[in-house]
Each structure stands twice: as C-alpha cells, then as structure tokens.
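Journal club side-thread
Mid-discussion, someone asked how the predicted structure for our own chain would compare to the paper's figures. Pasting it here so we can look after the session.
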Amino acid sequence: MHVIFSLGHPLPFCPKQYAPSNNQSNSNLGYPSVTIVYAVITALSLIFTFIIGCKYNSVRVFNKKVRTENISNTLWMIFFLLLAIREASNTVFFGIPRKDEPKYLESVVFVISATVHGIATLLLSFALNHQRRYRSANPPHNSQQQSGRLETDPLILRYSWLKNTLGLPEILFCVLFVLYIVFLWLEMIKHPSRLFEILYLCVFGLQRLPILILILAIVVKRNAEGPTPRSKVYAFVGVILNLIGDVPLTLWASVFPESPTCPLWIGSYVDIIHVVYLVSLIFLFLFVRSEYLRNMEECIWDTVSQIQDTFDFRKF
C-alpha cells in the first residue's frame, strides 16, 4: 500500500492468518482489523447523531419544542455526523482488497477524509467554545437589556444572531481551518515533498491547539453553576483521547515497532490507538448527555417564566 505520509509506515495487517502473503488467505477485506474498527466508529457516530438530535437537543414545553443556548447540541450533532461520513469513506477504502485498489483511490480518499476531518475539528472547536460561553459560566444577559434600550433596526435584528455567534475565537477557528485546507492541498500538489508534508502536519496540530486550550479552560474553571466534576472528567478524557486518535494511523505505525505477528492476535498496537479514538467518542457523548440533563430543568423553568411574563392574561 502506498503511504501518503513519507514519515509514516504501512498499516500492519491483522489477523496474520488472513494476510495476502498467506496462500490460504480467504480475507475479502484489505485490512480486516482496521476496517472493522472504522465500521464500528461509523455506526457509533450515526447512533450518537440520531440520539442527540432526537433526545438531547431541545425540551418540550406546553407541547412545543424549545431550544436555547444552554441546551442546544446542534454543533455536537453535526460533529458526530461528519465523523460518520469520514469513517464511512475510510471503511470503504481500507475494506477494498489491495489487489483491487485503483492507484488514484488512496489520494482521493485521503483528500475527502482529511477535508471532512478538518471540518469536524472546526465543529469540535465551536462546540467546546459554546460550552465555555453558555454552560461553564454564568449565562450572558441579553445585550439589549444591558444597554437599556430596545433595538428597532430590522437589519440589525435580522442578523443579530451572527454577532452573538461569531466572536474572535470563532474567527480564529475559521482562519486555522482555512490554513489547514491550504496546506492540505499544497501537500497533495507537491507530493512527495517532505517539507510540505511537515508543514501540513504542523498546521494539523495547530488547528487542534484551541481544542486543548478550551478543554483546559472548561475543566479548570470553578463555578457552582457550571459542569459537575463527572461531566468535566467525561469532557477531559474524551478530548484527550480524541486528540491522540486524531493522529494519522500511518504515523502511529511508524512509532510502534514492527512485529511479524499481531501482538493482540486479532489486532496490532495501531488498532489499540484506533480503539482509543472510538472510546473518546463515547466519553464525548456522555459529556453531551450529562450537560443536557443538567441544564434541561433550568431551560424549562426559564421558558415558563418568560411565557408568564409576556402572556397577556387580560384576553381571558
């Protein structure tokens, strides 16, 4: 198999009894252990997307769905959906027997997977920053109430959501994403070039730096109304394991010593890293669920109070 990264190594083939060099091989998969883990991650990501969309993204008040900033998990839902798309493409690619693999396929799948991966990283940054703004600190008061006047300009009212959504952190995330895409294409155009490969990997790591900073800010901040210690553990473990699993598997293959046999019989050390990435998604989902349950009751009471304050009882 051609390796996109010259710094990496080909993935180990496990279980060994199905290796193509074995005359008794009856495997219909290119890399059985890797393909199976990719397939499980795909299914798990789709399940989490569905559960979050159906159960953990809104509350029902007076038979009407309500979604506020402190319970909205739309960013997490899109994040898991993007992961499902990425892992599905990898499942198909690594599942193709090597003898049937077109020469151009790896480059095409790499570009698709890396692009979706960059978007997913962008969404994870947005989701963690949303957590920091609306759930790990006291919810910000309405800016109109703070200013003491009611905004009447229809243009400002129409696009006020953009002002409340995009701040300096979000702009920084978008800039890092654009840099990531630029260096991804440069790496592909100049391939093979170790210089552009190293530059791409540097930007790859740089895009994930805000995620590390955000999760530390969420965990370290002490607030009686913020996440519970259990939620912080879910978030911290999930993000750290996710960052470990984010490193391309071919680079992990160059870190671990080569072995003529599979250390785990059905899998290799690289598969352990792959499973770690799977576990990270479970912890992130538990974090999303925990935070939703913590803020759900408050959202319901705030909605009911707002209805009571604005409802005109004189009509009855």
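Post-session note: Residues 269-310 form the longest helix (42 residues).
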